[in-house]
C-alpha cells in the first residue's frame, strides 16, 4: 500500500457538521476498499484565491491515508460525482510527517521557516 495526502474543498453553504460527515463518508469509502485513514483534519471555512463554481469560500479538509491505488481511485471517483465537493487534490508521498499539518499549526510554532529578510527599497 502507498501513502497519500488528500485535500478537498466543499461548498461554503454546508454546515460544519455536514462537512465533517462528508469527511467521514470519504474515509469510510477508503476503509471499505482496504485502505486506512491515518489522520484527518478539518481546516474550516477559508477564502479561496478565485471563485470556484460561483463560490468565494469553501470548507477545507485534509486526509493522510495508507491505501491501495484502487481505493484512492474509487474515493476520487465518488468525490467527482458528489455535488458538494468543488475541488480535490491527491498527492502520493513517501511517508507521513508526524504532528499536525502546517495549516493547523499556530503561526508562532512554525520555527523551521527561518527569519524574514528585510525588503530593499
Automatic annotation (TrEMBL):
Compositional bias annotation for Basic and acidic residues: 94-121
GO cellular component, one term: cytosolic small ribosomal subunit
One of the GO BP terms on file: translation
UniProt region (Disordered), positions on chain: 92-121
InterPro entries for this protein: Ribosomal_bS6 (IPR000529), Ribosomal_bS6_sf (IPR035980), Ribosomal_S6_plastid/chlpt (IPR020814), Transl_elong_EF1B/ribsomal_bS6 (IPR014717)
Alphabetic keyword roster: Ribonucleoprotein, Ribosomal protein, RNA-binding, rRNA-binding
Molecular function in Gene Ontology: small ribosomal subunit rRNA binding; structural constituent of ribosome
Pfam families tied to this protein: Ribosomal_S6 (PF01250)
Record's function text: Binds together with bS18 to 16S ribosomal RNA.
Family: Belongs to the bacterial ribosomal protein bS6 family.
NCBIfam families (alphabetical): S6
Protein name, entry field: Small ribosomal subunit protein bS6
Organism: Planktomarina temperata RCA23
Gene: rpsF
Amino acid at each position: 500500500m502507498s501513502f497519500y495526502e488528500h485535500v478537498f474543498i466543499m461548498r461554503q453553504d454546508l454546515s460544519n457538521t455536514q462537512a465533517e460527515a462528508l469527511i467521514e463518508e470519504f474515509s469510510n469509502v477508503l476503509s471499505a476498499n482496504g485502505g486506512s485513514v491515518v489522520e484527518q483534519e478539518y481546516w474550516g471555512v477559508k477564502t479561496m484565491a478565485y471563485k470556484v463554481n460561483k463560490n468565494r469560500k469553501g470548507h477545507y479538509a485534509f486526509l493522510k491515508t495508507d491505501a491501495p491505488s484502487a481505493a484512492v481511485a474509487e474515493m476520487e471517483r465518488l468525490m467527482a460525482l458528489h455535488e458538494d465537493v468543488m475541488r480535490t487534490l491527491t498527492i502520493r508521498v513517501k511517508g507521513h510527517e508526524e504532528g499536525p499539518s502546517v495549516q493547523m499549526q499556530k503561526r508562532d510554532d512554525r520555527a523551521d521557516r527561518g527569519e524574514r529578510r528585510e525588503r530593499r527599497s
